[in-house]
Amino acid sequence: MTGRPAPAVLHPSLRPWLGLIAPVAALVVVVLGVLYAGHSEPGRVDGPKHL
Description:
The chain contains one helix and no strands. By secondary structure, it is an all-alpha fold. About 0% of the residues are buried.
């Protein structure tokens, strides 16, 4: 170890944006999970192809 701090992974000017975007993205994931919970049948796109 050299005693120097490690370089920042994320530029300091982006940190506030990440602080705003991360909770919104997490909320979207939770909402989609709740909407699709219990759906075990394939949807129109996922079902068998009929030619």
